[in-house]
TrEMBL record:
GO biological process, one term: coenzyme A biosynthetic process
InterPro entries, per the entry: Flavin_trans-like, Flavoprotein
Signal peptide: none
Coiled-coil regions listed: none
Single GO cellular component term: phosphopantothenoylcysteine decarboxylase complex
Family stated for the protein in its record: Belongs to the HFCD (homooligomeric flavin containing Cys decarboxylase) superfamily.
Physiological role: Catalyzes the decarboxylation of the cysteine moiety of 4-phosphopantothenoylcysteine to form 4'-phosphopantotheine and this reaction forms part of the biosynthesis of coenzyme A.
Protein name: Phosphopantothenoylcysteine decarboxylase
GO molecular function: FMN binding; phosphopantothenoylcysteine decarboxylase activity
Source organism phylogeny: Eukaryota, Metazoa, Spiralia, Lophotrochozoa, Mollusca
Keywords: Coenzyme A biosynthesis
Provenance organism: Mizuhopecten yessoensis (Japanese scallop)
Pfam family, one: Flavoprotein
C-alpha cells in the first residue's frame, strides 16, 4: 500500500499521501479499487474492522479511506494499513493549474465507493449537493455509472425525522444503493433503528456489487 508517514496539517493529523492514480477503465484490470468514506458517527469505530474484513475476503482489493474531520474522533487512522485522506490532503498536491485535483483523481481511481457510516449531517449535505469537504466533493464528482453504496448511522430520533426518509430517497434516486440501518441499542442508550448495518453485511454488499459489476463489464 502507498502510505507515507503522517503529517500534521492545520492542527489535524492526516496521512500524507501523494496519489498514484490509474485512469484505466474499471473492470479491465485484476485489482479492484474500493474507496471507503466515513463520517462523524460513533459507528466510525468500525472502520478499521471494515477495512480489515475487506482485505481478508479479497486480496485483490486496493482500498483507500476518505474521512471527514469528525470521523477521526472515533478511530486511530494510523492503525490502518491503507491510505487515509482528509481535507488537508486536497490541497497538498495542488500547486499549479495543471496539477491533479484529489477528489477528481479519487473518482477516476475508484471502481466502487461505500460510505460507512453515513451520518445525518453528511446525508443532508449529499442530498442537497453540498461540497464543503473532500468526501462531499468526491461524491458530487462521482461517476454515476459506477456503484456508490451508503450505510446510514445516527440516533434513532434523528433517523425517525421525516428528513431522513426524504434524503435517503433522494440518494437512491441518484442511483446510490442503500445498506439499511438496523435496530439495536445505540451507544447513547436509545433503542431503535439508526444503527449502521453489521460490518459483515456491508462487506457482502460491496463484494456482491463488485462481482455483479465485473460480470457486466
Amino acid at each position: 500500500m502507498n502510505q507515507s508517514p503522517i503529517s500534521e496539517v492545520g492542527g489535524d493529523i492526516y496521512t500524507e499521501y501523494v496519489p498514484e492514480m490509474d485512469d484505466s477503465v474499471p473492470g479491465t484490470r485484476q485489482t479492484r479499487n474500493v474507496l471507503i468514506g466515513c463520517t462523524g458517527s460513533v459507528a466510525s469505530v468500525k472502520v478499521p474492522i471494515l477495512v480489515q474484513e475487506l482485505m481478508n475476503i479479497d486480496d485483490q482489493l486496493e482500498i483507500k479511506v476518505v474521512t471527514t474531520e469528525n470521523a477521526l474522533h472515533f478511530f486511530d487512522h494510523t492503525s490502518l494499513q491503507v491510505p487515509v485522506l482528509g481535507d488537508a490532503d486536497e490541497w497538498q498536491g495542488w500547486k499549479t493549474m495543471k496539477d491533479p485535483v484529489l477528489h477528481i483523481e479519487l473518482r477516476r481511481w475508484a471502481d466502487l465507493m461505500v460510505i460507512a457510516p453515513l451520518d445525518a449531517n453528511t446525508l443532508a449535505k449529499i442530498a442537497n449537493g453540498l461540497c464543503d469537504n473532500l468526501l462531499t466533493c468526491t461524491v458530487r464528482a462521482w461517476d454515476l455509472q459506477r456503484p456508490l453504496l451508503f450505510a446510514p448511522a445516527m440516533n434513532t430520533h434523528m433517523w425517525n425525522h421525516p428528513l431522513s426518509a426524504k434524503q435517503t430517497s433522494e440518494l437512491r434516486n441518484f442511483g446510490y444503493k442503500e445498506i439499511p440501518c438496523i435496530k439495536k441499542t445505540l451507544a447513547c442508550g436509545d433503542t431503535g433503528y439508526g444503527a449502521m448495518a453489521e460490518v459483515s453485511t456491508i462487506v457482502s454488499q460491496v463484494i456482491e456489487t463488485l462481482n455483479s459489476k465485473s460480470s457486466i463489464t
